[in-house]
Every structure is written in C-alpha cells, then in structure tokens.
C-alpha cells in the first residue's frame, strides 16, 4: 500500500462523546458501536470533571497551537478547525507515526489551554484517543480539507 499524504485527525473534548453515546460511538479496536444508554451512564459516572466545552478564545488557542506545532515539527498543516466540542486537523507528517502526530497536537494544545486558564485549570481537555484517518491521494485530501474548513456548519436540506 502507498504511504499516506496526510492524516485526518479528529479529537473530541473531554466528556462530550462518551462510550454508549446516543449518536453511536467507536470502541477501541472494535469499531463503530450502536448507542447503549447504560454504558453512557456508566462512563458519565466515571468522569472526574465536567464535560469540556471550548469557547471562542480557547478555540483560537487550539488552532494557533496546531499550526505552531506543525511548523516546529516540520509537518504540513493543510487545515485545522476547532469547534466547541472537538477539533479536526489535516496534517502532512511524513515519516511520523500518526499516533505521535495526534498525541503531540493534544499535548501542546493542552499546555496552551492550561496556560491561558484560570488558576483552577482543567486537567482533562481531550478524549483519551481520537480518530486518525489516512489520506492517500489529492482527491481525498481535498475532501477532508473541505470538510474540515466548511463542512462543520453544513446542514442538509430538510
């Protein structure tokens, strides 16, 4: 198989998409799962903080830090969009394992968010993992960039 030209990374903020969620959810190494209200209640009971919703200045901090991390690591930031409850990034990170890319982005964004928070700073900003999709061609790259930048506010015709 060819090498990917980019990674499409999605990470939810802490507590906003729990195992069992009514929208469905992804179980590590097992794939997409149907809603499970009991499992969602169990996951919510284990939370150590409230779910994290990012406000506008925090979203700007995340987007800026993703770009800065990419420059520092010599990765290509094709697109980044931080929403109130998740972030998408399309990153060309040649010779770097995708889990390292995701981990570095989460770690550096967490540092910046903590630096700009009140003294009783949140410890948990992001979900444990997140999605990593490999992009292999320019058509796929164009699609994920378009989705990242413009698809978040798209609503189908009723």
SSE diagram, text form:
Layout: E1 6-12, E2 25-27, E3 31-33, H1 37-46, H2 56-73, E4 76-82, E5 86-92, H3 98-115, E6 131-135, H4 138-150
Antiparallel strand pairs: 1-5, 1-6, 2-3, 4-5
3D architecture notes:
The chain has 158 residues and is an alpha+beta fold. It has one domain: Transposase IS200-like (Alpha-Beta Plaits, 2-Layer Sandwich). It contains 4 helices and 6 strands. The protein has helices at residues 37-46, 56-73, 98-115, 138-150, and strands at 6-12, 25-27, 31-33, 76-82, 86-92, 131-135. It has a 4-stranded antiparallel beta sheet with strand order 4-5-1-6, with helices on both faces. A two-stranded antiparallel sheet has the order 2-3. The radius of gyration is 16 Å and the shape is globular. The N and C termini lie far apart (40 Å).
């Amino acid at each position: 198989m060819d090498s990917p030209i980019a990674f499409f990374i999605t990470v939810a903020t802490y507590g906003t998409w729990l195992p069992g969620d009514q929208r469905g959810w992804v179980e590590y190494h097992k794939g997409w799962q149907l809603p499970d209200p009991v499992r969602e209640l169990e996951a919510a009971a284990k939370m150590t903080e409230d779910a994290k919703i990012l406000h506008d200045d925090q979203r700007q901090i995340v987007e800026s830090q993703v770009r800065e991390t990419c420059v520092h690591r010599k990765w290509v930031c094709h697109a980044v969009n931080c929403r109130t409850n998740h972030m998408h990034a399309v990153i060309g990170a040649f010779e770097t394992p995708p889990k390292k890319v995701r981990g570095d982005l989460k770690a550096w964004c967490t540092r910046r968010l903590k630096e700009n928070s009140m003294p009783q700073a949140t410890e948990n900003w992001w979900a444990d993992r997140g999605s990593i999709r490999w992009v292999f061609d320019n058509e796929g790259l164009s699609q994920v960039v378009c989705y990242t930048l413009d698809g978040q506010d798209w609503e189908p015709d009723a």
